[in-house]
Amino acid sequence: MTYTEASMDALRRSGDELADAVVATLFERGEVGKFNTLMRHVSTAGSPLPEGLPDIAREYLQATSVSPDWVDWGEMEKARLFFIDNNVHISTALSFASMPACYVVPHVAKLLSATHGLNYPSRRMAETGQFTVYLMRPDAFEAGSRFIPAAQKVRLLHASIRHHLRRENRWDTETLGTPICQEDMIGGQMFFSLLVLDSLHRLNIHMSTEGAEAYFYAWRVVGAMLGVDQEAVPRDLEQARQFLDRYMLRHMGPSEEGAYLTRQLIDLYEEVVPGTFFDPVVSALIRYLIGDTCADWLQVPRTAWDNVTRIVPTLLGVLETIEDRSPLGAWALDRLGHLTTIFELSSLTRGRVMHYAIPEQLKKDFGVSGTVPRTRRWTPPAPTVAG
């Protein structure tokens, strides 16, 4: 598929018809609070739906309770093994590249500022980390899993944000398009897939072509579960590069909200890092992964660690070579990565399970068992030139 300014403009006008209709009806009938209360008890796939659930919500949950019929389970297993092999690096990329990339799109930064409490800045990262862990479990799409209910709730969360912004006339649809439109949903999917792979490549992580393609495929499945238009979404990494390049050229830039959210992110991880000596590493790593232009837009401070961070890929390359050549080393590093990821997620969630709910109002200060073989080392698709 070829993406043009016209095709991207069309995606800006589209939301999620199914989820939007459900949310509109819940608000019209005054049933949002009741829905949220009952849905706190629905956390695993296959669980009986609670008595008293609004009919339209019950119908939605039943209709979205299964994976797309085109899912290749072999590819999903490859993606899971890729995640196990690289979980700590993926967490790093999500935290220090994907989230700042969201902030460098001004209208996305405004949306995030409107929907996430300032007193709990770790919420966004906690939800993203928890969602990814749910996705990469071997039973993600089976009875008892937590992924499908999480995806169902996130889809309604997005619809509720669209509902609030339209109803309260707090969004310039003519200029900015539909809030959380198809273009932005696909853009988010690219941030959490292709941009993660780009970041791993920049960190000198050894990835196979098979593993990288499988990881991207898993996020295609996620996009389908979250209401992304499957006729418009990139089908492979080459199309993904074309879409992401054009999306960023269309929208990226500085904003007050983006800089503020980035400062929150930096403060959050400086609290996670023990002591204060290594605090500047957080800013340095963000700057290394997203580049100086975007980092300056987000007001990421320059530190003495900026040059030191450039040797990180060399160090990681040594560890990756050990992992490639030693089964024991691979096991030890994978185990260390797993424990590090669990520690990070525990720190972000403060030991709590994140419950996705439909917000009844927005913030008032809103401004506008094995491994994938490491053969065929993956290299990112070349940048494209927007026409």
Structural write-up:
It is a single chain. With about 375 residues, this protein is mostly helical. The chain has a domain at about 70-140 and about 170-350. Helix content is about 65%, strand content about 0%. The protein contains 19 helices and no strands. It has helices at about 5-10, 15-30, 30-40, 55-65, 75-105, 105-115, 125-135, 145-165, 175, 180-190, 195-200, 210-225, 235-250, 255-270, 280-290, 290-295, 305-310, 310-325, 325-350. Helix 6 (about 105-115) packs across helix 14 (about 255-270) and helix 10 runs antiparallel to helix 12.
Topology:
Blueprint: H1 5-12, H2 17-28, H3 32-39, H4 55-63, H5 73-103, H6 106-115, H7 123-135, H8 147-167, H9 173-176, H10 182-192, H11 194-202, H12 209-225, H13 237-251, H14 256-272, H15 280-290, H16 292-297, H17 305-309, H18 312-325, H19 327-349
Helix pairs in contact: 2-8, 5-7, 5-11, 5-12, 5-14, 5-15, 5-19, 6-14, 7-19, 10-12, 10-13, 18-19
Q: Kindly name the structural category.
A: mainly alpha
Radius of gyration: 20 Å
Number of strands: 0
Question: Roughly how many Å apart are the termini?
Answer: 14 Å
Report the principal-axis shape.
Answer: globular
The low-pLDDT segments are 328-333, 335-354, 365-370
**Beta-sheet strand percentage?**
under 5%
Range of helix content: 55-70%
The H-and-E topology, N to C, reads as HHHHHHHHHHHHHHHHHHH
The main β sheet shows up as: none
Query: Average pLDDT, to the nearest integer?
Result: 82
Count the DSSP helices: 19
